[in-house]
Amino acid sequence: MTRSERQELIDKGLMLPLMEEFYTIQGEGYHKGTAAYFIRIGGCDVGCHWCDVKESWLAELNPPTETEKIVANAAKYSKTIVVTGGEPLTWDMSLLTKQLKDQNLKVHIETSGAYPLSGTWDWICLSPKKNKLPTPTVYDNAHELKVIIHNKHDFIFAEEQAELVNNNAILFLQPEWSKKEEMTPLIVDYVMNNPKWRVSLQTHKYLNIP
Ligand code: SF4
Question: d(Cα 17, Cα 42) in Å, to the nearest integer?
Answer without folding.
Answer: 5
